[in-house]
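Reminder to self: tokens first, then the designed residues, so the page reads top to bottom the way the pipeline ran.
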């Protein structure tokens, strides 16, 4: 008889979990919140960063909009290991959406998603074409708390969730001079700098490449030029294009590539490269 009772208890628990998952949590119109423990979501544009510096959700197609739910309020001493945030990017231009989850694996799995990031409060980055973003988008977020135990000895289900909240992310197709190019009168050269990794993914201890291309548009052969890489604002490397520039004719180019590993102090500052008497600055 005892085994039958335990079996009935387990079946009842599974029914509860299935019902919450398939009916309440997957449905995007969740509004009712349990009265004893509440989650008041606070979705905001992230302040104090180089992305979307005026915090209005409007950028060029080369820009980034960063959003955060880090100031969400809980009315109990919440265990953050059980939290997750469901993010949705909805394109108003093609009526399509992409949903992903940040945070606890159990919490994300409960709403049929795999965690994209381990921390529920990690900044969400949006830019043109990422997660289906087009020119006009709505970014929505919902914070959830999921904790359950399927053991026969102490089965329980604790599920709490905030309402949905949203902000806009608009990208304008405006020409933007990401890198300023200058021409030296005495040498007739143009310097170009490219960063191979998109800025939102340059995080602590990540590695990215900086490529410097020097092209001779003059008639004279280029002489040896020192090339300096300065990163926020310490000198990282000093090299010379001596071997490649000595015999560089008109219309030809020389390339130098650095591979950089970032640290916290470098993330929101700048890269500066000097070639001869020319200076170029690129924010990262």
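Designed residues (284 positions):
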């Amino acid at each position: 008889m005892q085994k039958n009772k335990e079996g009935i208890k387990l079946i009842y628990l599974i029914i509860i979990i299935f019902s919450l998952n398939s009916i309440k949590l997957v449905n995007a119109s969740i509004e009712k919140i349990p009265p004893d423990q509440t989650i008041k979501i606070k979705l905001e544009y992230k302040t104090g960063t180089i992305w979307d510096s005026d915090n209005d959700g409007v950028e060029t197609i080369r820009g980034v909009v960063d959003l955060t739910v880090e100031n969400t309020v809980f009315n109990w001493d919440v265990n953050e290991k059980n939290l997750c945030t469901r993010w949705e990017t909805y394109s108003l231009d093609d009526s399509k959406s992409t949903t992903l989850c940040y945070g606890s694996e159990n919490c994300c799995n409960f709403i049929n998603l795999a965690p994209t990031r381990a921390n529920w409060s990690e900044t969400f980055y949006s830019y043109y074409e990422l997660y289906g973003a087009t020119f006009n988008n709505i970014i929505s977020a919902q914070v959830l708390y999921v904790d359950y135990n399927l053991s026969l000895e102490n089965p329980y289900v604790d599920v709490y969730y905030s309402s949905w909240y949203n902000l806009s992310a608009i990208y304008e197709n405006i020409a933007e001079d990401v890198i300023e190019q200058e021409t030296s009168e005495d040498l007739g050269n143009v310097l170009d700098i490219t960063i191979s990794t998109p800025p939102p993914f340059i995080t602590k201890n990540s590695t990215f490449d900086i490529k410097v291309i020097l092209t001779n548009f003059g008639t004279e052969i280029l002489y040896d030029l020192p090339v300096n890489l300065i990163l926020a604002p310490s000198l990282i490397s000093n090299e010379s294009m001596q071997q490649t520039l000595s015999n560089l004719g008109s219309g030809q180019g020389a390339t130098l590539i650095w591979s950089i590993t970032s640290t916290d102090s470098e993330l929101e500052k700048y890269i500066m490269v000097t070639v001869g008497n020319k200076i170029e600055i690129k924010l990262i």
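The chain has two domains: 2-172, 189-283.
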